[in-house]
């Protein structure tokens, strides 16, 4: 298909630890459409960040191994490229913004130096032109007094400004795909609103696709077109943002939605998901969410359900939801 | 009318800025700058604001965990300190009062001693205050663990054996061990996952009801505060800009900062996305706050008077207390 920029197929990423093997990402498949925002939601440890690191081929070696799957970007399988080829894509055609703008920037180099590094490498611009382009980028991300900030060090900037610098760096080579891993989690709400607003404008202006990773459903509802919900390394639900919010099918998604106090009036009882995510060393045999699910049936304990389409464009991994649609999806 | 459990008057906390070899004082960071409020018995008072606005410092100064620069705090009719009148409660008395005032911290990984087991952590206070002997303290600890949703058999385990949510439950069990009347929750759920947040929040709700607690809830999460608190104060650079009941404040925010803050909260449903008020720039440094109204550098409605005079916190139409020249 032409309108798909990135296609992840059956991705498995594992980590070797002293206590044994941990499968952080387990058979994950999804597509990112051109000019659209894919939101990945999940709690800590569900594999959302490892998925993004796998796409960038940045899984820490030698303990992390991508053991299966394909990541097709621009008709190329990123997992088959050698280090030199992946370097020409990373930061150029696919770039990334991280959660902590404090630690993602190098404290001993100026902002300008850090932005120009990728520019010089990928675009071949030199000297004055690089500097001009840097100032232009800082102005695109709406940094006031860009001409001065370019010679400042990260510690002289506030959290919001640093995240803007990170974005400037990420868009410097006009990437086709931007991976944003919890870009606003460390920021205050008013600054978060500024950054989200900026990112929305950039999508329109630069015609890029975004993978937006977060645990904040509110942010997802603002930003995403398609949503993937992850739990314990697997995708449990996948649909458009409207469907996910208006008609969540998986009990985990429902639980997440209901545990937000934003929809409650004062005095309403708070709904919670009981229990905790299972330990990666001791995964349940059947559905990973079964121990916390109030609606589980016998089948849930013994067999992991597949991710099946229950309504058009709405996939879910749950025996109960499958049963409701009838037996047409039995394989 | 319920009586006031806690009264805070003109509280100030300045941190000195030191410079040079002789550590000469060159200025002050006004972390908390002249705030007054009272909390009624059984009430949940919410303190919201962005990072660095002084909400945690307020909580700690009230508990006399850090020395105040000015103002007074009265707890149950007993003055804890009154800087202007040179009064401070004796150490002996303060120790007695500590039983009644407890705190739950934000980071459940840093607030539990890794070398103490859960039983020791929770029962330490009971033994120090000689409320129970050793055997009763153990029984009480087990009871507390069960109350907070853990099993009593966990008593011999160490903090590293627990997840974040469980550790926060231990922290809460510790805070209620002495049957306190008043608890400060300093962002008690900020470090936790979404599904765990709601678990801890409903635990707090249950305990507040059962134990008849009065609670000062410090948070930056506006949705949680709206749902959880009775009274809410919005802080900006060490001062209150608006105080009101949860309903008043969220249905009818008056101060331009409150309005911007509320509109910055992401929509809960895609269908509810609305036009927002975007604030320009960042919060100014508290070491060098703007003259007059501290918000005037980012306020869309700044008038001349805002740059000159600090607005008073006054009631607008009998509702919220607001500190803004637009309404005076």
UniProtKB/TrEMBL annotation, chain A:
UniProt-annotated location(s): Cell membrane
Top-tier EC class: hydrolase
Keywords: ATP-binding, Cell membrane, Hydrolase, Membrane, Nucleotide-binding, Transport
Membrane topology value: Peripheral membrane protein
Limits of the ABC transporter domain: 9-257
EC number per UniProt: 3.6.3.-
ATP-binding listed as a keyword: yes
Chief location bin: membrane
Coiled coil: none
GO cellular component terms listed in the entry, alphabetical order: plasma membrane
Keyword Cell membrane: yes
One annotated GO biological process: peptide transport
A Pfam family it matches: oligo_HPY
MF terms in GO: ATP binding; ATP hydrolysis activity
Similarity section: Belongs to the ABC transporter superfamily.
Protein name per Swiss-Prot or TrEMBL: Oligopeptide ABC transporter (ATP-binding protein)
Biological source species: [Clostridium] ultunense Esp
UniProtKB/TrEMBL annotation, chain B:
Annotated EC: 3.6.3.-
Molecular functions (GO terms): ATP binding; ATP hydrolysis activity
Record SMART domains: AAA
InterPro entries, sorted: AAA+_ATPase (IPR003593), ABC_transp_ATP-bind (IPR050319), ABC_transporter-like_ATP-bd (IPR003439), ABC_transporter-like_CS (IPR017871), Oligopep_ABC_C (IPR013563), P-loop_NTPase (IPR027417)
Keywords: ATP-binding, Hydrolase, Nucleotide-binding, Transport
Keyword ATP-binding part of the UniProt annotation: yes
First-level EC class: hydrolase
Similarity remark: Belongs to the ABC transporter superfamily.
Protein name per its UniProtKB record: Oligopeptide ABC transporter (ATP-binding protein)
């Amino acid at each position: 298909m032409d309108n798909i920029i990135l296609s992840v197929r059956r991705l498995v990423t594992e980590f070797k630890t002293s206590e044994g093997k941990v499968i952080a990402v387990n058979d994950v498949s999804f597509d990112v459409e051109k000019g659209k925002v894919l939101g990945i939601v999940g709690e800590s440890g569900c594999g959302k960040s490892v998925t993004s690191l796998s796409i960038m081929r940045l899984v820490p070696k030698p303990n992390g191994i991508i053991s299966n799957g394909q990541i097709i970007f621009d008709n190329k399988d990123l997992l088959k490229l050698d280090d030199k080829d992946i370097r020409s894509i990373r930061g150029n055609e696919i770039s990334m913004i991280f959660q902590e703008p404090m630690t993602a920037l190098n404290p001993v180099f100026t902002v300008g130096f850090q932005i120009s590094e990728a520019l010089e490498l990928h675009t071949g611009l030199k000297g004055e032109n690089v500097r001009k382009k840097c100032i232009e980028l800082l102005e695109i991300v709406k940094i006031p007094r860009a001409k001065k900030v370019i010679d400042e060090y990260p510690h002289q900037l506030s959290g919001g400004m640093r995240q803007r610098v990170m974005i400037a760096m990420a868009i410097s080579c006009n990437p086709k795909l931007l991976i944003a891993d919890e870009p606003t989690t460390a920021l205050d709400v008013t600054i978060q609103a500024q950054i989200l607003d900026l990112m929305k404008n950039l999508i329109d202006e630069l015609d890029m696709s975004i993978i937006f990773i977060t645990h904040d459903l509110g942010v997802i509802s603002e930003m995403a077109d398609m949503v993937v919900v992850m739990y314990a390394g697997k995708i449990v639900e996948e649909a458009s943002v409207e469907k996910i919010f208006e008609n969540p099918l998986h009990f985990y998604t429902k639980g997440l939605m209901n545990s937000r106090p934003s929809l409650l009036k004062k005095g309403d009882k708070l709904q919670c998901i009981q229990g905790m995510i299972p330990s990666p060393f001791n995964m349940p045999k059947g559905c990973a969410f079964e121990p916390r699910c109030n609606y589980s049936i016998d089948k849930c304990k013994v067999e992991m359900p597949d991710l099946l389409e229950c309504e058009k464009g709405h996939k879910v991994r749950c025996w109960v939801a499958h049963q409701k649609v009838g037996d047409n999806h039995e394989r | 009318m319920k009586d006031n459990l806690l009264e805070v008057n003109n509280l100030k906390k300045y941190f000195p800025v030191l410079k040079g070899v002789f550590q000469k004082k060159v200025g002050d960071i006004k972390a908390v700058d002249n705030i007054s409020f009272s909390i009624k018995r059984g009430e949940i008072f919410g303190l919201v604001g962005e990072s660095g606005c002084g909400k945690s410092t307020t909580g700690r100064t009230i508990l006399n965990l850090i020395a105040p620069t000015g103002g007074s705090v009265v707890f149950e009719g007993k003055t804890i300190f009154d800087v202007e009148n040179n009064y401070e409660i004796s150490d002996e008395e303060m120790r007695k009062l500590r039983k009644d005032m407890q705190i739950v911290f934000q980071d459940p990984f840093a607030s539990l001693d890794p070398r103490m087991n859960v039983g020791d952590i929770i029962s330490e206070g009971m033994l120090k205050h000689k409320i129970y002997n050793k055997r009763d303290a153990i029984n009480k600890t087990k009871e507390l663990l069960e109350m907070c949703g853990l099993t009593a058999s966990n008593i011999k385990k160490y903090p590293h054996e627990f997840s974040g949510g469980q550790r926060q439950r231990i922290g809460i069990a510790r805070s209620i061990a002495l049957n306190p009347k008043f608890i400060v929750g300093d962002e008690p759920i900020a470090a936790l996952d979404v599904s765990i947040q709601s678990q801890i929040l409903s635990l707090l709700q249950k305990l507040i009801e059962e134990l008849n607690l009065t609670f000062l809830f410090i948070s930056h999460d506006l949705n949680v505060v709206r749902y959880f608190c009775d009274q809410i104060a919005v802080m900006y650079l060490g001062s209150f800009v608006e105080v009101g009941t949860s309903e008043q404040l969220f249905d009818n925010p008056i101060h331009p900062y409150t309005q911007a803050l509320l509109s910055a909260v992401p929509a809960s449903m895609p269908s509810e996305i609305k036009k927002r008020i975007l604030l320009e720039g960042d919060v100014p440094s508290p070491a060098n706050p703007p003259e007059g109204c501290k918000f005037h550098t980012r306020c869309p409605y700044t008038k001349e008077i805002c740059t000159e005079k600090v607005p008073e916190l006054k009631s607008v139409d009998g509702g919220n207390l607001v500190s803004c020249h637009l309404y005076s």
